[in-house]
Amino acid sequence: MSEKTYRLEDLMDIVARLRGEGGCPWDRKQTIDSLRPYVVEEAYEVTDAAAEGGMHLADELGDLLLQVAMMAQIGQEQGDFTINDVLRLVCEKMVRRHPHVFGDVQADTAEEVLKNWDEIKKQERGQTKTSQLMQDVAQSLPALLYAEKVQKRAAKVGFDFDSVKAMLEKLREEVDELEEAVAEGDQKNIDMEFGDVLFAAVNVSRACKTNPEIALRDSSAKFIRRFCYMEDKMQQTGRDLEEMTMAELDAIWDEAKAKGL
Q1: Spatial CA neighbour of 141 closest among 51, 211, 224
Q2: Can you state the angle between helices 187-207 and 212-237, rounded to 10 degrees?
Q3: Which of 7, 55, 15 is closest to 35 using CA atoms?
Q4: What is the pTM of this model?
Q5: Are the CB atoms for 142 and 197 separated by under 8 Å?
């Protein structure tokens, strides 16, 4: 028995019914603003599912698409735009920003493609300065990704360190300045210097071609795995974590690390 095939039109019909008279009370009360957190949440769930792939990823992509459909339906109800406008705008943008595919521009490398993309984007928005591109970075992005995008846009005009070594030296310099701020006890200065440490660390991640957001999430997940191991180990001995010395906890932590957790 073959599975039923659905189209985008089917999804829009379902959303319209949910939002319509006699539809779902929760869906009917939603607004563009109230849906914003769900868009972010679903985007993150897609990112997590991408590591697994398969139907799990397909399922999460569907949840993200639902948020697009919901916002488009609300836009139509308000007389602002429709799902057809969404489709038209993204299709026109893809054609416009790929002149090497749909036009006669030559771009043989990914770097050339990105250079053309940025130039076309600046022209579309009437931007003449790199700082305008920086200011255009979405402030709703997670702070690490926000910093990475700002740095990348500065690097495209040559404002960048010439090596990973130089970036690491800058990171150490910022750590030293944070240490001085902590010693002085000035909270405002501590906050500022800590931000500089994170910004410098993002620079290093960029040079190492490591996504800082994913790297930090992976490290957090690793921390949880090792903590679980440590806690399970303690339960086997009948002792509570609070009863253990830091030296004892460190020993079990190193054991978890040695096991590759």
Answers
A1: 211
A2: 110
A3: 15
A4: 0.68
A5: no
